Amino acid sequence: MSYISKLMSSLPKVWNKDPLEEDLVILNDLSCDYSYLSIVDGYLYLHNEIDNLKDSIQLDLTIYTVGDLIGILGSYGLVTYSTYDLNLNKSALILNELNALNIKSMYFLNGNFIISIIPLRLYKSINWQVLYPIAIYLSRVKEDMTLSLKQLFLSSSSGQWVDYWGTFLNILREYNESDSSYIRKLFLYFINPKTNNIAMEEYLRILLGYPVSINDISPNLFSVVLPLDFIDREEEISNKINEIKACGVNFIIVFVDNTESLASNISLINSSLVSSFYTY
Predict the structure, then answer these.
(1) CB 107 within 8 A of CB 115
(2) CB-side neighbour CA atoms (13 Å) of 210
(3) 38, 47, 172, 175: which could form a disulfide with 56 (CB 3.0–4.6 Å)?
(4) Inter-axis angle of helices 234-244 and 197-208, to 10 degrees?
(5) Which DSSP string corresponds to 47-69?
(6) Which one, of 152, 277, 265, 250, lies nearest residue 215 by Cα?
(7) Is the CB of residue 47 less than 8 Å from the CB of residue 57?
(8) What is the pLDDT of residues 206-257, one digit of tens each?
(9) Reduced to 3 states, what is the DSSP secondary structure of residue 188?
């Protein structure tokens, strides 16, 4: 049952529940660039493909009065008039829903002009003028709640919600990275081998195209030893290590000018070969 049906059914039986629909006629002098007009869930669409509302003009009727809407339609070459004394300050939500009405049909000749008549229906009943907008709002609230629940799951999240997931996991989105690519990267964070030295060495080797040496210094500190050639990529490398290391574990990056036998010689950290290091 729709929200308007629920609201109407809750009214006392003695109340008049007839919507008392009236015509709001639109005249199209064929200067409008669009072929179809639809009114769906409180939105008015002008579109050229009968089943496609994506590439269309979309007007949110919740923010317009009837007078506002008449003015906007006029800017698209559609002139309106009402069959009764219409209150232009009423919400545009009093318009009845409409599915892909062809606004370039029903032509007649008016002097030297060919004009198309587009009949719209609106609710004249005060009950419907009050309750129908409320029904639209309730429907949108329900839709927003459903969408918010979807965003709680990484696989079905989108846009800024994926960014929230990435911030929580300390994995930032790359510039111009799509949602699907970013979500895949976040899932790989969960399922890929990581945190141990061999897994991190392999990850960085693939990233940098160069062997990396990772050594434990203490239970919660390890070193990443790299040649000086990578010192300009220090921030990038640090971010990638943060993506895969265990929580509560810190690391230092050591850049050296001699990479021979780095895999096991932790003493290099304090030797003269060390050019610079950073602790995270």
Answers:
(1) yes
(2) 12
(3) 47
(4) 140
(5) ESBTTB-SSSEEEEGGG-BHHHH
(6) 265
(7) yes
(8) 778 888 889 888 888 898 988 888 888 888 888 888 877 877 888 999 888 7
(9) helix
Helical (H) or strand (E) element with 27: strand 21-28
Tell me the two tokens of residue 150.
Answer: 């979807």
- 144 three-state secondary structure: helix
Tokens of residue 129, six digits: 């003028």
Report how far apart, in Å, the C-alpha atoms of 19 and of each of 6, 110, 124, 214 are. 15, 33, 7, 74
At 17 the three-state DSSP class reads: coil
For 82, the token pair is 């009402």
pTM above 0.70, yes or no: no
Pull the structure tokens for residue 198: 């061999």
At residue 42, the 3 state secondary structure works out as: coil
Are 194 and 222 contacting, i.e. CB atoms less than 8 angstroms apart?
no
Q: What number of residues does the chain have?
A: 280
Q: How far apart are CA 134 and CA 74, in angstroms?
A: 27
Residue type, 36: Y
SS3 201: helix
